[in-house]
Write a structure and sequence with these properties.
627 residues, Phenylalanyl-tRNA Synthetase, Chain B, domain 1, Phenylalanyl-tRNA Synthetase, Chain B, domain 3, 5 domains, 18 helices, 29 strands
């Protein structure tokens, strides 16, 4: 929204500098995007939030300036429209309040269409509008000044002097005033005369009743439209205008007569002519201000500060809310129809707070105790990041995939769709079921990347959904991976390293739901993450050197290396490290490190430990040393 300072000053005599004014308006929620010097004027560019359609007008912005400076708004002085009529032209109007809540208008005869006066053209150019003709320029000017969109029809082109507001059936053809043809969507609100559609309500006027040089009689319409209907038609057609932006957010339903009066005054002054009808103001209900009560106690509790009652009353008065103290601790306000955003007591509290100034609130430390336990919904994403980094360091790449899969995805992986959770209203057959495993999408990712990459290592940390055939449905986080390069042993090593880095002492196999060559693995992250212990115990580096030796052992192939390492370590606390050095046929060579942190070890002590190792391995695992 562009607003020239000279125009704003016609409503409120601000004494602030442009920069001070822009900063103060930004503080109260009217974001100042730019302040531009334009010859002898200053142009403000504001970003307007969707809940404040009143700020899409010069008057609305001037009202905000008046509120922050504690001043009154100057209103324009209009003449009485209800003059004695020498000529009354006929017009039949048929409308429906469900799709057109208010229809306000009037006929003016004997006008002269020509260029706008210099002051009007220059002002429109300043706010980014292209001057067209005096009548069209006046309707645009008043809309931007007061916030109510206005449209002028060539009265003599309205066939049968009849206007019927209705909704389209769909695919009707309509040519707008700028000569562009459209096929209208279903339920768009339009106006038709006895022969054709003449207006796409709230969005664009029709070419067939547009204002041109030969136009002598006009009908001026100031409507109230239904926001949802205007929004749907606008989105369907990809057609937006200043008018549709206002109607979509909610127009000032009580301001149609003021806007009509302002428009008529300017037409009579600039284009001449005489009023040729009474005012049409068709509505089912009265659009009057409404009342809201404000509890001072609640305001104090919500804001956490005490504001003097006199200050609160002054703020509400400056906002044109007509405050009145009706009892001790309660203020009653009257909300003008242009403030559609004020519907509840909390809205009034916010108004007081923003005008009072959030920067004036004292800086306080939150009260209460620091929680010692995380809330039930808490997730430690730093922990997840650590898990992911371990896999990245091992050569895997992370992927994210959809939680929804197709029936074909299940059957291709020999899974029963009847035992899988299904979405009641899927957007398509491709996204019909909730994935019971991460394997499906990982395999698809490998197939997709295989033409471009020889070696593929992928992993994903995400939710799986199970329990289709159970009373209790559940969702759990799983950690899954797939590799075309690593064999079973290497993948097992990655998982063991993960558990070691996370301080999990338990056997990883009890958390592995699936592991197979090809190669794919899946772990229940929710279960093993509960066992994570990142507390580290740091020990000083021993002063005394270790003794290292390699021990070659003969054994059956079925004996697990892990079991051997455990048995060796259990024979003495002086065994610091055991690792598999090499494997050849039925012989495995282990590297053993002995070390005493308090003194030097002797070869005799190491020999005794070695003897215990060999005896234990022989009696329990039938292992003997290499000859």
């Amino acid at each position: 929204m562009l607003a020239p300072l000279s125009w704003l000053k016609e409503y409120v005599d601000t004494k602030l500098s442009p920069r001070e004014l822009g900063d103060r308006l930004t503080e109260v929620g009217l974001s100042t995007e730019k302040i531009i010097k334009d010859k002898d004027d200053i142009i403000f560019e504001f970003e307007i939030t969707p809940n404040r359609p009143d700020l899409l007008s010069i008057l609305g912005i001037a009202q905000e300036i008046a509120a922050i400076e504690g001043k009154s708004i100057k209103h324009f002085k209009g003449v009485n429209i209800n003059l004695s009529l020498k000529k009354i032209l006929p017009l039949k109007i048929q409308t429906d309040p469900k799709i057109n809540p208010r229809f306000t208008g009037i006929i003016i005869d004997g006008i002269t269409v020509k260029e706008s006066p210099k002051w009007l053209s220059e002002r429109l150019i300043k706010i980014g509008q292209r001057p067209i003709s005096n009548i069209v320029d006046i309707t645009n000017y008043v809309m931007l000044e007061l916030g109510n969109p206005i449209h002028a029809f060539d009265y003599n082109k309205i066939k049968g002097a009849a206007m019927r507001v209705h909704q389209t059936k769909g695919e009707e053809r309509f040519t707008s005033v700028d000569g562009i043809s459209y096929h209208l969507p279903k339920n768009a609100v339009v106006i038709s005369d006895d022969e054709k559609i003449i207006d796409l309500c709230g969005i664009k006027g029709g070419e067939n009743t547009g204002i041109y040089e030969k136009t002598k009689t006009i009908f001026i319409r100031v409507p109230v439209e239904v926001p949802s209907l205007i929004r749907r038609a606008s989105l369907s057609l990809g057609l937006r205008s200043e008018a549709s932006s206002i109607f979509e957010r909610g127009v000032n339903a009580g301001g149609t007569l003021n806007a009509l009066q302002r428009c008529v005054n300017l037409v009579l002054e600039i284009a001449g002519g005489k009023i040729a009808s009474n005012i049409y103001d068709i509505k089912k209900e009265e659009f009057n201000p409404w009342r809201l009560d404000l509890s001072l106690e609640k305001l104090k509790n919500v804001l956490g500060i005490s504001i003097a009652e006199s200050k609160i009353l002054k703020i509400l008065e400056n906002l044109n809310l007509s405050p009145e103290k009706i009892s001790k601790g309660t203020i009653r306000t009257e909300i003008p129809t242009y403030r559609n955003d004020l519907k509840a007591e909390e809205d009034l509290i916010e108004e007081v707070a923003r005008i009072y100034g959030y920067n004036n609130f004292p800086k306080t430390i939150p009260s209460g105790q620091t929680p010692v336990k995380p809330p039930p919904y808490y997730r430690d994403y730093r922990l997840e990041e650590k898990v992911k980094n371990i896999f990245k360091e091992a050569g895997f790449s992370e992927i994210y995939t959809y939680s929804l899969i197709s029936e074909k995805d299940l059957t291709d992986n020999e899974m029963d769709p009847d035992k899988t959770l299904r979405v009641d209203n899927p957007v398509s057959r491709e996204f019909e079921y909730l994935r019971p495993t991460l394997m499906i999408n990982l395999k698809k990712a490998v197939a997709l990347n295989k033409p471009n990459f020889e070696d593929i290592n992928l992993f994903e940390l995400g939710k799986v959904y199970r329990g289709a055939n159970l009373d209790k449905k559940e969702e759990s986080y799983f950690l899954s991976g797939i590799s075309t390069k690593m064999n079973f042993v290497k993948v097992k090593g990655v998982i063991e390293r993960l558990f070691e880095e996370l301080g999990i002492k338990e056997d990883p196999s009890q958390y592995v739901e699936a592991i197979e060559e090809g190669i794919f693995f899946e772990l229940n992250y929710d279960e093993f993450s509960e066992k994570i212990n990142l507390n580290k115990t740091f020990k000083p580096i021993p002063k005394y050197p270790p003794i290292k030796e390699d021990l070659a052992l003969m054994m059956a192939d079925k004996i697990k290396t892990g079991d051997i390492i455990r048995e060796i370590k259990d024979q003495s606390p002086l065994i610091r490290e055991v690792s598999l050095l090499e494997k050849f046929q039925n012989i495995r060579t282990f590297h053993i490190v002995y070390q005493n942190p308090r003194r030097n070890l002797t070869s005799g002590e190491v020999e005794k430990i070695r003897e215990r190792i060999l005896v234990r391995l022989k009696t329990k695992l039938k292992i003997k040393p290499k000859d």
